[in-house]
Amino acid sequence: MAAVNRVFAAQLAGLPVFGPDGESIGKVRDLVAGLRLDQLPPRVLGLVVELSTRRRVFVPMLRVTSIESNAVTLATGSVNMRRFHQRPNEVLVLGQLLDAHARLASTGARVAVVDAAMEQTRTRDWVLARLAVRERTGPLGLGRRRANLQVLAWGEVAGLGLTDLSGQPQGAGELLMLFDSMRAVDIAATLRDLPLKRRHEVADAMDDERLADVLEELPEDDQKELVAYLAEERAADVLEAMSPDDAADLLAELNPVEQNRLLELMHPDESGPVKRLLKYSSDTAGGLMTPEPVVLAPDATVAEALAHIRNPDLTAALASMVFVCRPPSATPTGRYIGCVHFQRLLREPPAELVAAAADTDLPPLPPTASLTELTRYFAAYNLTCAPVVDSEDHLLGAVAVDDVLDHLLPEGWRETGLRDLDPETEPEHA
Q: Are 121 and 184 part of one and the same domain?
């Protein structure tokens, strides 16, 4: 993402959108933000882009690599061509937020929203941090054309929280506000205790990425129930947002007709890795691995490797190790050379090549390795992440220790495991 501190929504309207190679994608027509009940700035979820065919599609903000005064550029990858549909907790910044009526939190004065500015946080999220407002005067609140324009922090303007078009709070709004500061595993535990209707309301209001995180933490029966409730296209979108290994585990539990239908609806770039994982038994290295570890070419530097593992979207296990392979870097890769633990990276000069620091003696796992073999492997080598390599020395993926633990724990641990950790539920000692 280009180093832009603040971008006003009105400046984005109509800007051309280009792919990484300069190909024209379309034009920006709106911004999509997820509203909240409290006064914290809402997160900008993505852009509504109008293609040359007039179809409007959603592009997540994570796909945006730069925002300039004359264009927006996207990262490598294909654009999801499904038509954009607004969700219950979303607001179109240009289409609905601008010209909305609100009040100043300090004085109660009536104002109209003229523009909204998004700013990027330390976690790379974009939020609607500031609002440009103009005071409304007169008996009907009609503003003078030259009333003073003020740029205020989001929290200084009241009346723009998580509401529907009539101004009434969404049914699941309070829960969404609570969930905003919770880990996905804790949200999953809460969802299991909700009535089915409320659980569905929450699922409808969550964005795809958040729902995918929560779905990964639910027991299989609850996963299948939620997927069955969602419309097919929404279910496919959520599966695309899940980790490929988790998506494969979920799809493996569905009947072949449902499984094939959802795979067809997923984008080929997302369904391809999932299909490869479905070829392996779920209790083998091939079934447990993720096909998206950190892979670098031999001529990459230690500094580049450290930059890759700083990615906040990586789990701690996957960030603990980088894998050095000949091109191509997408799995299945070119010839596997070795791996470098992040502690080794910290000890090497930044300009050193990763190939020189690679551990070539650590034996990789075959995709057919059983759960017992995986357990012994992790215990013997004290690892949290391990390479999975085929008979032709292609890296297929990496197994993380948390996925191994998931399959070692007794069935139903997700329903009881976290409660067992609560000290208030432990029996008193005599």
A: no
Q: In terms of Cα–Cα distance, which of 294, 282, 289 is closest to 244?
A: 289
How far apart (Å, rounded) are the C-alpha atoms in residues 395 and 285?
12
Exposure string (b/e) for 178-191, b if CB count within 10 Å is 16 or more? ebeeeebeebbbeb
- The CA distance from 89 to 106, in Å, is 26
DSSP letters, 212-247, are HHHHHTS-HHHHHHHHHHS-HHHHHHHHHHS-HHHH
Q: Are residues 126 and 27 in the same domain?
A: yes
Query: Do residues 43 and 34 lie in contact, with contact meaning Cβ atoms separated by under 8 Å?
Result: yes
HSE-up of residue 7 (Cα within 13 Å, Cβ side): 23
Answer for the pair 89, 34: CB distance below 8 angstroms, yes or no: yes
* CATH number of 245's domain: 1.25.60.10
- Distance between CA atoms of residues 227 and 259, nearest Å: 11
Q: pTM here?
A: 0.61
pLDDT digits 0-9 by tens, 346-390: 999 999 999 999 999 999 999 999 999 999 999 999 999 999 999
User: 18-32 b/e with 16+ CB inside 10 Å = b?
Assistant: beeeeeebbbbbbbb
